[in-house]
Amino acid sequence: MNRAPLLRLRPGTPVLSRGGGQVQCGSDPRWSFVLSGLTPAEETWLGEVAERRHVTLEQAAARCGVPVERRDEIVSVLVRAGVLVPVAGTVGAVTAPADGAADATVLGMLRPDGAGLATLADRARRTVGLMGLGRLGTSVAQHLATAGTGCLVLHDPLPVQVTDLGLGGLRPADVGQVRHDAVRSLLARRSPRTRAHVDDGGLDLTELDLVVVVEPHAAHPARYQRLLGLGVPHLPVVVREADVVVGPLVRPGRSACVACVDLARADADREWPALAAQLRETTEPTHEATLAALASATAAGQVLAQLDGHRPAAVGACLEISLPAGLPRAHQVDPHPRCGCVVLPS
Ligand SMILES: [Zn+2]
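Above: the input record for the complex with zinc ion. Below: its predicted structure, written as tokens.
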């Protein structure tokens, strides 16, 4: 059976001539490969397939004078290499800007079927909760909305501070407003397709696909107990003196939780519980611009990896971002034997 009419070159894949009958498909070392022993007609054909995406493989091969047997042979090699994908079908509604034109090609690279729009349609059906809407949390909300998340549920009843402005898009006129109201208005202006609700206390947490909590100094295990018990994935983002810790992203019952991290810390420092209690009474660190930008993008990336069905780097790890390096460093965190959130092998 000839499957070629149903296939197309994976969108975004560069087709590059290396000379001497060699063509390279892709430039990313994770999946690029070289075809050798091609005739000039076959090289022309592959170049045309890359440049004229509306022309079918068969039409282009016929025009370039590639024999049918060689065409089918090369097509089967390209299928095995994963560079030919099915012609896109219809997907559900997309809330990302420009109907996903900026994102679909890259997201398609991460899927066997190349259907980046399907990833965006799936994101459009997802709901993410956000608690803590200072400078960093507001920026996380912006990233998630821009990336096509369908619904955000916002919670932070404190007033907008002057230190919340700039990054994320809050303006001087927003100062003094309730943060979750100000961020909802901001999202309505900038990402009108994303639904933004304020959590007024009547929220059914099980409707959330994931909850992001931005908090100062140290993640407080008690804040996450309900989410853990209800099986709702969650991601703490902890702002410290000159660094931010993103993670662990908790898949309840399947990966180390916030209490696991806290227990490990108490193992290493017996005074930790007393110190943590004092930190909870200590003035919150402000969200420095570069740290907040890096941490919000990192957090949003972890959330989207989870929504998209990948394994986020922050599952079983804390991603520490400190200045001046600004590079996330992953520290593995394991389920703690005394926590009981994950059934450990005996
Ligand atoms: Zn645990």
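Notes for the reader.
The longest strand covers residues 210-216.
The domain at 126-332 is CATH 3.40.50.720 (Rossmann fold).
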